[in-house]
Amino acid sequence: MASPRPGPNLSKIATSLGVSVATVSNALSGKGRVSGQLVERIREHAAELGYVPSQAGRALRTGRSGVLGLVLPDIANPLFPKIAQAIEFAASAAGYGVLIADSRGDVATQTEAINRLVERGVDGMVIIPRRATRISSAACPVAVIDTPSTPGNTVAADHWQGGREIAEHLAGLGHRRILIIGNNQESNVQNDRAGGIRSGMRPDMHSETLWIEKLEQDAGSGCPLGLAEKVRQGFTAFAALSDLQALRALTELQQAGITVPADVSVTGFDDLIWSPVVTPPLTTVRMDMDRIAGIAVSALADTIRRNSIREGVLVTAEIERVAMQLIVRQSSGPANPAPKTSEMENM
Amino acid sequence: MASPRPGPNLSKIATSLGVSVATVSNALSGKGRVSGQLVERIREHAAELGYVPSQAGRALRTGRSGVLGLVLPDIANPLFPKIAQAIEFAASAAGYGVLIADSRGDVATQTEAINRLVERGVDGMVIIPRRATRISSAACPVAVIDTPSTPGNTVAADHWQGGREIAEHLAGLGHRRILIIGNNQESNVQNDRAGGIRSGMRPDMHSETLWIEKLEQDAGSGCPLGLAEKVRQGFTAFAALSDLQALRALTELQQAGITVPADVSVTGFDDLIWSPVVTPPLTTVRMDMDRIAGIAVSALADTIRRNSIREGVLVTAEIERVAMQLIVRQSSGPANPAPKTSEMENM
DNA sequence: GCGGTTTGATTAATCGTTTAATCAGGCATA
DNA sequence: TATGCCTGATTAAACGATTAATCAAACCGC
């Protein structure tokens, strides 16, 4: 009934070579004292037998599973593929596997997801927290990726600076009235980005902020944002806090007969997959997820290596904010002092 | 140096209750012969001690890790979050963890990613294959999710039928000249979808197919698709094989001053996250990923349970094609026999 | 009251790896 | 030559769970 593992194990190699298992183990790991030529012979033989070490056996003995957990509470965020990819890449470069857990956007099950990972024996985990949740340390080292302004954050993109880049870009193009379009006011990330935009504006500039989720509570999901009205009020730039919202703004404006960027400018955040290929391609700000993931994972790996006794720690890294990079494409252009109003009639 | 696991283990519970470890194990798993009241006592005590079984110990003994691998070779596909979420959900409902592996779109590393999973001791894996690759069975049971027409496929959405739904919808709206917009001609999925559209057209209808990747090889990535010209040629409907391409088409048309759906219709596939919130909301076709994932995972779990000896098998399921559902939104409307040509001048 | 079954528990082996402890020689030094 | 050290290997004890085999006692029919 019990299924024996298919491949050879240490003891098969050992008996086949007439040595002890301990020697084989030492030779392969390079730890004990084994003569050079014997190491050679053992390595060779192991390779030709196609030996692959049993993670279970190793884990049982060492207490380390070699697996990290990745908690993505808001998987609907289209940023997810990039994050998962970056984490997986960094982790496997560091010799770790990645176990995913998501809570389908439900706050209550975030804890449950974390527990499942702990039960599976992960050595540590990377958490991208759901907005406004605070991670109290779990039963293993935890790296948090949120925003630099979040307490307990390990490493994150410098969303604030990214916002400033956008503001300065728009200011340089002559825009003076900017509408910031965000989704959710509780999101640490979106708040940082909005704050950055405001802080980067010149004294003679004016901004308002539109929170979509709040709007949809009254007007229903998928409702129009009323951007044409905003254009009439003199806004010439729409700075969305995510490319998803930028896309929504862009198509609504286009449908209303307002041309981007001739009439108004639209910018986003995150450089999501569609951003370069829509018309016009989106001006946006990109975070270096590979770098962030690399820092998070190596900080985590360090902590795991250091902590002989397994305990819950919020991991800290030396670099905790990574600069975002402005990508200028064609959705932003010089401010048009008098956007064409002819089209506005038929709204 | 070696870090002892923090929590209690079977033997701690056993000595604390004055019974043997075997009895505790039996009581918790409900397998051997233990008296009812002792089972009760043991379960209670284990719970209050916060006992969590060691996956490593169990895995070593049983040869089962309780983990499935998920191979996503083309992670750039924005469909990924839904797939990953569905698989993770189905797997954790079946008591499995999910280890992810991606090959960053690189064909060569797909095999390497699979090997990494095998080395980590997964009990089976779900593979969404990169286009045009054929999965030869690995060292464990494998479920393939691609298209029903792919040899070796386990379960998938009925992309062909989805295509027919689109064609019939457009036919019913009076469209007679349809431009199919796909990305890559080698993709099994996209080919099925295109085939379905063609097969669902009425005899008096005409279609052409535009493959973006081929176009971009000459004209450069992100180049215009020249859809305005197609409108002039009499095409009134643009059926994209993914919402990503639909979005690209929609924005290009809108930017050219062509109104959707008044002038032409645009449809997509997959009901991606932005589809309901762009203007106009996209008519698309949705696959029931939860159902597909559920079927794939339970077929996999069955095979794993059945196969005492661990071997590589391509898993088969009873239901291998799952119907797609047409979602009619506002990007498709009645065919306009003479789309306005006034705007066409300024192209 | 005696062989035989059933019940409820224990014993002990096993999965594959790591690693501390031990040991047998060889070699150098006193 | 006896002592000590170094080298290169072996021994054996874990890690934590599962499970086949065993065992003691109770219970049954005859």
Structure, described:
The structure is a homodimer of 347-residue chains. Helix content of chain A is 39%, strand content 13%. In chain A, the strands form four sheets. Chain A has a four-stranded parallel sheet. In chain A, strands 7-6-8-9 form a four-stranded parallel sheet. In chain A, helix 2 packs across helix 3. The first copy, chain A, has twelve helices and twelve strands. The longest helix of chain A has 18 residues, at 289-306. By secondary structure, the first copy, chain A, is an alpha/beta fold. Chain A folds into two domains: 67-157 and 288-321, 3-Layer(aba) Sandwich (Rossmann fold); 159-286 and 328-346, Response regulator (Rossmann fold, 3-Layer(aba) Sandwich), CATH 3.40.50.2300. At the A-B interface, helix 4, helix 5, strand 2, helix 6 and helix 11 of A face helix 4, helix 5, strand 2, helix 6 and helix 11 of B. Chain A binds a DNA duplex (30 and 30 nucleotides) through helix 2 and helix 4.
Structurally, how many domains make up the residues of chain A?
Answer: 2
How much strand of chain A? 5-15%
CATH topology name of the largest domain in chain A: Rossmann fold
> Pairing-aware structural class of the strands and helices of chain A?
alpha/beta
Second-tier CATH architecture of the largest domain in chain A: 3-Layer(aba) Sandwich
Organism (chains A, B): Rhizobium vallis
Protein name (chains A, B): LacI family transcriptional regulator
InterPro entries (chains A, B): HTH_LacI, LacI/GalR-like_sensor, Lambda_DNA-bd_dom_sf, Peripla_BP_I
GO molecular function (chains A, B): DNA-binding transcription factor activity; transcription cis-regulatory region binding
